Amino acid sequence: MRVLNYAKWENFENIINKAKIACQNSGQSVENHFPEVRKMVLIGHSANSNARYIEDYNLTKYACYLITQNGDPHNPTIAQAQTYFAIQTHRQEVSDSNNVEMQRIQYYDRLKISRQQLNKTAEKGGVTNPDHLQSLGIIGLYGQSPVELKVTKNLGQDDLYDRIDRVELAANNFITTQTEEIVTRKGITGQGRINETHLKVGQKTRKTILELGGTPPELLPTVEHIDKVKQRQIGPPPVVNQLENPE
User: Fold this and answer.
1) How many angstroms separate the CA atoms of 71 and 6, rounded?
2) Number of helices (H), then strands (E), in the chain
3) For residue range 127-168, what is the model confidence (pLDDT) as tens digits?
4) Whole-number Å distance between alpha carbons of 225 and 229
5) Using only C-alpha atoms, what is the Rg of the chain?
6) What are the CA-CA distances from residue 1 to residues 22, 57, 102, 147, 177 (Å)?
7) Is the pTM of this model over 0.85?
8) Distances (CA, A) of 132 to 84, 92, 138, 146
9) CA-CA distance, 105 to 226, in Å (whole number)?
10) Residue 198 backbone dihedrals phi, psi, to 5 degrees
């Protein structure tokens, strides 16, 4: 109470009651965050002092936050505390956003490596058209050809993987790594058999997503181009100076 510059208990108790309501509305336990206790204090001076129990609280950090947010903003201490919490909330939101974007970059890079590995494995098995192989994974997962999917997702000239979020990147990476693992483990060879394997893995993945109640991947919204995300999180790519060959 003194920390927040409230001189009268009655005024401070009104703020506590508002904070309790906010706590209840947020689905939290009022009893856990505002446990009532009784504290003994001395009333009077020296020999004439009398002991008396008064109502008090052992507040949690969350309770203190709610009290601050429900306090009088005209109180300079309250206003300062509210500003502090607003800044911290904004910082956390920025941090969470950065974490999500960095995860997307990681999923994107993993998929790129997985696709390269699948192409190498497929080439050893007799596949001569890796682009067609990759398109079969898309057909299996999305139920559409890459050309149709560009229209559905309104990709324009952008590559599919540059405009999808973590969930889709993870699904595509799963299909790619599973196909590569199956082909390697079973020793599958021949362009037709490897192509069929990749298509089936994509189809089974799609079926599982739908059975679990997930959104059909072709209906998931596109997101900001990965290059912009990388530039924001990592910075622009380094500029390599091309030295002219001496004549």
Assistant:
1) 10
2) 9, 2
3) 999 999 999 999 999 999 999 999 999 999 999 999 999 999
4) 7
5) 31
6) 19, 11, 43, 66, 60
7) no
8) 56, 44, 10, 10
9) 7
10) -65, -40
